[in-house]
Task: structure prediction
Amino acid sequence: MNIRTIGVIGCGAVVQGIARAIAQYGYNVIVKAKDEEEVAECQQALEALLDREIERWGITRTEKKIFLQRIKFTASYDDVVDCDFIIESLIEEFDLKVACFKQLEEVVKKDIVFATNTSTLSISELASHTSRPERMVGMHFITPVHKRPLVEIVRGLHTSDETVEIAKELVRSIGKMPIEVFEYPGYVTTRIIIPFLNEAMNVVMEGVASAADVDTAMQLGFNLPVGPLEMADQMGLDEVLLWMEHLFQELGDLKYRPCPLLRKMVRAGYLGVKTRRGFFTYDERENRIE
Amino acid sequence: MKVLVLNCGSSSVKFQLIETSLEAIKNDTEERLAKGIIERIGMPASIIKFESRDNQPYRATAEILEHRVAINKVVQLLTDPDYGVIKHKEEIGAVGHRVVHGGERFSTSKIIDPDVYKEMIECIELAPLHNPHNIKGYEIAREILPNVPHVAVFDTSFHQSMPAYAYIYGLPYVLYERHAIRRYGFHGTSHRYLTFRVERITGIPRNQFKLITCHLGNGCSIAAVKFGKSIDTSMGFTPLEGLVMGTRCGDIDPAIVLHVMAKEELELHEINTLLNKHSGLYGISGVSNDMREVIKSADKGNERAQLALDIFCYRLKKYIAAYAGAMGGTDYIAFTAGIGENSPVVRQKSCEGLEFMGIKIDQERNNQTVGKEALISTDDSPVKVFVIPTNEELVIARDTVRCINGVI
Result:
């Protein structure tokens, strides 16, 4: 199958990251946001993302121009009719995603693959609400998307081998590594990393070591690029809590119970880098200051 | 014989159709029938430029999404009843392909047979940005023109004559054995063309003179050519080493890389882009990677542009003197490519102060020479300095004919 144009549905950092990653490898991208306001927001944020990359020497001004030329933004489903592949990356609400796929089915070519970027919802259940369950696959990107060369390809019960292969090939063609996962709560990455972060928070709550020392210990002791608490701050503590609760509900095992300190911080509005305060504090350029 | 010369880059295909033969090579009477370029392949509006001997130039934009379509377009243009120069594609007698990296395996051009093809694939790891496109171009051209010989001409092969003491780095020798880490040098086809032209201009056989060739384009390299053979060149394992270039840094202390990576918390691809795309004339001047713009700004008093120009010429001068040292003197110097052919200022500044080793530039000759072949040194200059517009395509066409006739 010859994929030239990819539709990305949604707004927000992950959508920008996906659009940017795909455009780099020569694909045309159509980002479909909710309305004109979201379109403008998304467009601005993407430019800012590319500007930050230029500042860090990662790309050149010419490359920025080329990437932007390949990415179109729209608020209308009519503009995705010619797409050869769809990646839906809306917020994690089941009904919203189902509604999106129903609308897509009405306009797009009938044999193309729908990928959904979810870390918690069931691919099989989403697929069963469409008329093409065998063409539905999960594609779990890790944030920040343009820096993490991994995508989990999630197979639902109906997903065909061909669909999985198409998704894997696409992932390889954008310089990332696909790993195949069968549908199960948390897949591989979320299921392993979230309890790791949670345990680091428990260590702080129990007064065993300070947040800074926990991070230093794990970072230097195991050669990690950042420690678990700074990582949680980057992901957003509210997100981490959501994932933890989801794993706890789905799997019922006490080892997935969210750390009370995490709940307390989320209630206080300390959500990590995005609020400039979490386990550490951050300046306006998102650098850790304490 | 009509030879199609193909140069496939990541998003472009450059081509020429050249009428040549062993006889024509001997007499220097080849004829370029057509040339063209398809740029921005894979983008919504690719640009097609085509000029032929017989017809009006052709310009167009079209959606050309991949190299296969582009190379088909090349053949279609060449055979076009209105713009083309041949009636059928069967008139093309051979195809010569530019291949950036030939590693240590290829010291000359080769007819591409299954063994050569396999070895070309193995060279991809040495030039992952360039070789895959060159090879893809070959694969497509072979499908379109299956019954003619295809020849690979490598940018690195001219420099394979370097002695080990010039190509081995001061690193653990085991890295050479394990990963083939050594100096390869690039622009070989251009340096070779200059050697050939100097032989023609002076009438002295190449095995009797010493020559320093300066290829100064967007990428810049300089070579010491002793008795017709490259014995040293400034580009190294990759085209990043040596002279300061448009956006590449050239020689730096390698410890800077480690220090800057730590200080700015850079990842591999970021430091790679910094050195290759954010440095050189562009990085120093903050104005442009284009020497013409840098000189214009410097003339208007922009200090950083002036500094960029000074650094560029100073580095070049050091290399010229070093290569004269390496050869025990030099008889000729030749400048070529965008900057070398068109910038009297750069030529003047980079030879300034080298009178002690016999280099005397004639200012008037130098100033009058833009984009044409000419002598720019004084009549009494012991070292003769030439400007020679390069012609890599001609070398590729010639090697193609020579390979087919078994005289390479």
